[in-house]
Design brief:
The protein folds into 4 domains: about 190 residues, no CATH class; about 300 residues, Rossmann fold; about 240 residues, Rossmann fold (3-Layer(aba) Sandwich), CATH 3.40.50; about 140 residues, Rossmann fold (3-Layer(aba) Sandwich), CATH 3.40.50.11610. Helices cover about 40% and strands about 15% of the residues. It has 32 helices and 26 strands. The strands form 5 sheets. Strands 3-9-10-8-7-4-6-5-11 form a 9-stranded mixed β-sheet.
Length: about 950
């Protein structure tokens, strides 16, 4: 109430709002009521505040928010009787007072567009009419006129127009220009105004602080020049021209530590990465030199180039040790960003830190990539969602103004700034001239303060330049001749700052002395970050040793005792009386209760649920996300029960898997945003930092994994052999030819098969409820962490033939190969002439066809684990049928897709002498599936018939 009173008092006290200006203000207020966006920001803020002011006349009109305005106008009118006569001078003065407020608003809104940001000064600063006093009718005669400036933070309630303009330009148009007025949060706007205007965007650093900044600039420049001289022509993606970035990182880390942050996870692409490794994280220079000289230990099957490498260390800060992690990154630049966010979320969850007070994500972007690669927009969409928020990210742009190899601004982007995509989440942007390292450090301080205060994303855009080419092997002047003439004349940020400090009396030779000392450290291969903590061990650090260096094994003890099964089944099928489920959901849970008691076979949804329940009851957290994961795209899961009488998300849902045991591990299920690339990368990042959680990403349809292919290629399939990063993420990809057309049939099994080597991941296609139960449990119970790709079914979710008896859950385990199930055929194995091997749903079609034909000389084997191929088990099954002369691989997918081309050599290896291998399936196709239902049925019938017909086409003989 006190706040609303003060707003009203301020309103009453502003006399320029009344009298001759009353019609103008009243019209503006009516415009605001019709459309708040139609009035200037200053007025909109003013009227926003008035919405909360109660009526002041004691009437019953308290619900009319603009009553104070009407009353005030009436009161002012009464003071002059029935007619108010104002001198023209007063009217003009009132207009000028209003114009002053508009001028202030203009500088706050667009001042950064006139800021001094370009170190190269290649273009004249643009003319921004709104920043020109003449735009509002002011002349030189008005310069000394004093106006009310109480709504600013310049330290004066009244200032002359000249003073005000100087203050505004210093604050918003110097080497630091900040965008923040588009935020809808008034508290955040006022926070920025107070922070910037109170110091006019100029830091007041001590002499020691300035010397430290120079030291960091010297280190940044020193490393690049050392490498440029010693390793001529080798790629390193130099930071020269953007050295202030290292000072920014140093400030960010030190200040974050002082504010209680204990871990910082950094994601960045190539530019400046080696500099960060050495000068920020403290990697030993001699270790980096060894990589340049190709003498580094090669203990990985593939390895990766030095500017993709990650690193971790612990450094000392005023608040205590801070653990720094630089994420490994492929050449797809921005794809590392959601990986970092997922890693941060895992660390937050482990610490019980829901707001990100102890863990900070820092993402470093290039100016072209940040807006040009859509994964950033997807990642920003995640920023404030419940399942993915990390308490705000500090983004830093190394903006070299060239955009990879582009120089013409018309080809760089379609927005004013490369940072404009951040406006989608109302993230403030601090544009700063890289040649003013003090302003860069100030920007870092403000960005961190904002993030810690509001737990939201914020951006520091360091406008700099790139001294060399995109890499050190090209000649940029071929395509940017004028720009590189300017760069050739530039003395360098370090030199400019050293000269500035010398002029301030801080030592004429200080810069040279620092450069010599750094060169000596490089020659000795010593640390350049002081102090790096070599023996610190956080209690939150993950012990990966149980999962490293493990040889592949298919076996694991995944069955659970019958008593435990029944206990868990009762827990997850009991709906509290306070929750009213939908009738269809109630039936699902009633049926599951019967399954739990062993009265009927267990279906897929119950088998999956019991796997999750048994894991969380045993202390393994489960994190399941996807575009429809709570219900399940095919409504088979129902992990979240929505109360039919309540709609609030916090009280209107019930999750049985969160109520399995008193001290159970967490079960989290998330209906993600409509994203594949960023969400899968996020979950990969989460799994990369938590080997003890079953992390599952489920595609709505398996085909949608197409949108995340870069994550699959560059992280999931190859992360271990490139970087030694063990990861146990699980992908569930609905797959099956059900006549739903080309986009809803295939999860592109062939792509995963082609990516499989070095036992890098598991490719499985289970066909029964017990198989999914054991497979999910095996993923956690084995001391082995490999990505698991499950091709889950659609029609089999409700196919009674795919259900399993309770006994298959209380004994046994995951079967990589399911042998022939017809005991009559097994008993007469010597009569079998043909063995059909298959995987997935087509098995049930084949069994049905065999029954119709009475073909008791045909055995059918299911391969449930396609990679690593189970040679021992599969070979043993083939040997059972020693008189069989033909092996047929049958699949739903077209011949050029599916498993055929990647599995035939595995089958051939296990065939007996004289046996022939043939193919039964759809013909090769450019499309995954047909879109016409009748054609689908014809093809399905034909491929099943072909599995029993005479071999034709390609036949491979042993």
């Amino acid at each position: 109430m006190s706040e609303t009173k003060s707003v009203y008092a301020a309103y009453q006290g502003n006399t320029y709002l009344f009298g001759g200006n009353a019609p103008y203000v009243e019209e503006m207020y009516e415009n605001y009521l019709a459309n708040p966006g139609s009035v200037p920001d200053t007025w909109r803020d003013y009227f926003d505040a008035l919405q909360h002011v109660p009526a002041v006349d004691g009437s019953n009109a308290k619900d009319v928010p603009h009553l104070p305005v009407i009353n005030a106008f009436a009161d002012r009118a009464k003071q002059g009787g029935t007619k108010v006569v104002m001198a023209s001078a007063d009217v003009e003065m009132g207009r000028k007072r209003t114009a002053v407020q508009q001028l202030i608003a203009a500088y706050r809104n667009v001042g950064q567009r006139w800021a001094d940001l370009d170190p190269l000064k290649r273009a004249e600063r643009p003319h921004i009419p709104e920043l020109d006093p003449a735009f509002y009718g002011f002349t030189d005669a008005d310069q000394e006129t004093v106006f009310d400036t109480s709504n600013t933070f310049f330290g004066k309630d009244r200032m002359s127009l000249r003073e005000l303009i100087n203050a505004l330009r210093e604050t918003y148009c110097g080497t630091l220009g900040v965008e923040y007025m588009y935020t809808t949060d008034m508290a955040q706007k006022r926070w920025w105004q107070q922070k910037l205007e109170s110091i006019r965007s100029k830091p007041q650093f001590s002499a020691d602080k300035k010397k430290h900044i120079l030291d960091r600039l010297t280190a940044a420049e020193g490393l690049e020049r050392y490498l440029h001289t010693k390793y001529v022509g080798q790629k390193r993606f130099s930071l020269e021209g953007g050295e202030s970035f290292i000072a920014a990182m140093d400030e960010l880390i030190q200040q974050a530590g002082a504010k209680g942050v204990q871990e910082i996870v950094i994601g960045m692409a190539h530019r400046g990465r080696l500099n960060v490794l050495v000068n920020t994280l403290g990697k030993m220079p001699k270790d980096l030199f060894a990589e340049f000289e190709h003498t580094a230990p090669e203990d990985l099957p593939a390895g990766d180039v030095k500017y993709h490498q990650g690193f971790s260390s612990d450094v000392s800060t005023p608040g205590g040790p801070v653990h720094l992690s630089l994420a490994f990154n492929p050449s797809h630049l921005e794809i590392v960003n959601p990986v970092v966010e997922g890693s941060v979320r895992a660390r937050m969850d482990r610490r019980g830190d829901p707001k990100g007070a102890q863990v900070l994500p820092v993402l470093v972007h290039g100016d072209a990539a940040v807006g040009g690669q859509g994964v950033n927009q997807e990642t920003l969409c995640l920023a404030q969602t419940r399942g993915y928020t990390t308490g705000g990210t500090v983004h830093i742009i190394i903006n070299n103004q060239i955009g990879f190899t582009t120089s013409d601004p018309r080809d760089l982007r379609s927005t004013t700034f490369c940072t404009d995509i951040f406006k989608m989440v109302e993230a403030p942007v601090l544009h700063v001239n890289g040649d003013d390292p003090e302003a860069v450090v100030l920007a870092s301080q403000l960005a961190l303060e904002y993030r810690m205060e509001f737990r939201a994303d914020v951006v520091v855009d360091i406008t700099c330049y790139r001294k060399l080419g995109h890499n050190e092997q090209d000649t940029p002047s071929l395509t940017q001749p004028l720009m590189y003439k300017k760069i050739a004349q530039h003395p360098g940020t370090r030199k400019l700052y050293a000269d500035k400090l010398a002029a301030q009396g801080l030592g004429e030779t200080l810069g040279d002395e620092m450069a010599k000392a750094y060169r000596a450290a490089m020659d000795a291969g010593k640390h350049t970050v002081d102090p790096v903590l070599t023996n610190f061990k956080s209690k939150y650090a993950v012990d990966w040793s149980p999962f490293l260096g493990k040889k592949w094994t298919d076996s694991a003890e995944t069955a659970i005792p019958l008593t435990e099964w029944k206990r868990l089944a009762e827990k997850i099928t009991t709906i509290p009386p306070t929750v009213t489920p939908h009738q269809l959901v109630k039936k699902v849970f009633d049926d599951r209760a019967a399954m739990g008691r062993g009265e009927v076979n267990v279906d897929w949804g119950m088998g999956e649920h019991m796997a999750f329940a048994s894991l969380v009851a045993s202390g393994y957290p489960v994190r399941l996300s996807g575009e429809d994961s709570g219900r399940g795209t095919f409504t088979h899961r129902h992990a979240v029960i929505h109360d039919q009488n309540r709609e609030k998300w916090d009280t209107g849902t019930y999750i049985p898997l969160q109520n399995v045991a008193e001290n159970q591990a967490p079960f989290v299920v998330i209906d993600s945003i409509l994203s594949e690339e960023a969400v899968l990368a996020y979950e990969y990042g989460y799994a990369s930092n938590d080997p003890n959680t079953l992390v599952v990403w489920e595609a709505q349809f398996g085909d949608f994994a197409n949108g995340a292919q870069v994550v699959i290629d560059q992280f999931i399939a190859s992360g271990e052999v490139k970087w030694g990063r063990v990861n146990g993420i699980t992908l569930m990809l609905p797959h099956g030819y059900e006549g739903q057309g080309p986009e809803h049939s295939s999860a592109r099994l062939e792509r995963f098969m082609q990516l499989s080597a070095d036992t890098n991941m598991q490719i499985c296609q289970p066909t029964t409820a017990s198989q999914i139960f054991h497979l999910l449990r095996r993923q956690m119970i084995r001391n082995l962490r490999k990505p698991l790709v499950i091709f889950t079914p659609k029609s089999l979710l409700r196919n009674k033939d795919a259900t399993s008896p309770l006994s298959e859950f209380t004994k046994g385990g995951f079967q990589t190969v399911i042998p022939e199930q017809d005991e009559a055929i097994v008993k007469k194995a010597d009569k079998v002439k043909r063995v059909i091997a298959c995987s997935g749903k087509v098995y049930y079609d084949l069994v049905k066809k065999r029954t119709e034909k009475g073909a008791d000389d045909v055995a059918i084997i299911r391969v449930e684990q396609l990679y690593p191929f189970p040679h021992k088990v599969f070979g043993a099954e083939i040997k059972k049928y020693g008189n069989a002369t033909e092996i047929v691989w049958c699949q739903d997918e077209p011949q050029n897709q599916g498993a055929w081309f990647f599995i035939q050599h595995n089958i051939h290896e296990n065939m007996l002498e004289g046996q022939k291998l043939g193919y039964a399936g759809r013909a090769a196709s450019a499309s995954p599936a047909v879109g016409y239902a009748h054609l689908h049925q014809e093809q399905q019938k034909a491929l099943v018939d072909a599995a029993f017909a005479k071999l034709k086409g390609f036949v491979l003989t042993k």
